[in-house]
Automatic annotation (TrEMBL):
Domain annotation Guanylate cyclase: ranges: 228-282
The protein, known as: Adenylate/guanylate cyclase domain-containing protein
GO biological process, one term: intracellular signal transduction
InterPro entries named in the record: A/G_cyclase, Adenylyl/Guanylyl_Cyclase_3/4, Nucleotide_cyclase
Annotated source species: Kaustia mangrovi
One example GO MF annotation: adenylate cyclase activity
Length: 327
């Protein structure tokens, strides 16, 4: 019996229902366990491919509650793995590249799913489709999953891409649609877990935040530590606040905090709080890493690094390091 090329392609394009079912169960397990977002996305893509889906590329984007970034995107490419990209806030409206994307079109026209077979002219409609076609993509399916019925900005935007000559089969599309919402649930739970961790780390510090997450929330719960205290404030901030516009002053503070904060975290310090134009941090002593002497060295190194980073800007900081402190 002769088997035509079309028959072979059809056989290859029929995903295993059993393996797709196992993937759906795995995604629910990840949601219950607050799985790692990167591992969820990579694991889902690898399992789809193993189940027989001709997946070449996957993109997932999520809005963020972050002072510096409005969104984060994850791109998985077969044979290359996962890459992560953050998208900073813009002063007004939306970035031009997003306005020209399939996702913006979908949100503007309330379209939950968009499919395009890719060819040399695909870039005329959306520039990104031309780029994906040049990389080898043949079939593109975009989707939007909302996370909260009262906030249209919270959710997941994603796309699947095939590089097979005939694109996705109907069986593959059914499998992708079945997995889509389960993937959204798993990602939503991972994002919520990470958000809670980020908030606690931001307002309590890394060590205190991790202890709260582990259940130390009763009044009186605490731990005695040794650490070097690190305190810095912005010189001439009162004059700047009086002479600059509100937004310019806020932008200056954000830039200043980002600069000195990077110096602290680079030396494994923990930022405890921002007070006006000042920042309070600690460098906990580690008995296995030189104790208090090493903690003070790290704090001093962070102070020097902060001044070096500020040397290329118009900001000037006063920095104090306390060598001995017990709390």
């Amino acid at each position: 019996m002769e088997i035509s090329e079309v028959d072979v392609q059809t056989a290859e394009s029929t995903p295993s229902p059993i393996l797709i079912g196992q993937l759906a169960d795995w995604l629910m397990e990840q949601a219950l366990r607050d799985g790692n977002l990167k591992e969820i996305i990579s694991g889902c893509c690898e399992r789809l491919q193993s189940a027989g889906v001709g997946l070449y590329r996957c993109f997932l984007g999520f809005s963020m509650l972050h002072p510096l970034y409005r969104a984060v995107g994850f791109t998985w490419v077969r044979g290359e793995g996962l890459t992560v990209e953050t998208f900073p806030h813009v002063a007004e409206g939306l970035p031009d590249d997003f306005k020209q994307s399939p996702f913006h079109y979908m949100l503007e026209h309330d379209v939950p799913c968009l499919r395009r077979h890719l060819d040399a002219d695909s870039g005329k409609e959306f520039a990104v489709l031309g780029e994906i076609h040049e990389a080898g993509g043949t079939d593109y399916v975009a989707f939007a999953v909302g996370f909260h019925h009262t906030d249209e900005n919270q959710g997941m935007l994603g796309s699947w891409t095939s590089d097979r000559p005939t694109g996705f089969s109907e069986g593959e599309l059914r499998a992708l649609i079945r997995i889509r919402d389960r993937l959204g649930v798993a990602c939503k739970m991972a994002i919520r877990s990470k958000l809670a961790q980020n908030i606690l780390v931001t307002y309590l510090g890394a060590d205190a935040g991790s202890r709260v997450l582990s259940g130390q929330i009763k009044r009186g719960d605490g731990e005695t530590i040794q650490a070097a205290i690190w305190y810095a404030d912005l010189r001439n901030s009162t004059r700047m606040a009086d002479t600059m516009s509100r937004q310019d002053f806020i932008d200056t503070l954000n830039s200043y905090f980002e600069t000195i904060g990077a110096a602290v975290t680079a030396e494994r310090g923990e930022i405890l709080s921002f007070v006006g134009d000042a920042m309070l941090a600690i460098f906990p002593a580690d008995a296995n890493d030189g104790g208090m002497e090493k903690a003070c060295e790290r704090a001093y190194a962070a102070a020097l690094d902060a001044r070096r980073r500020l040397a290329g800007s118009t900001h000037c900081a006063r920095i104090w390091v306390c060598r001995r402190w017990t709390a």
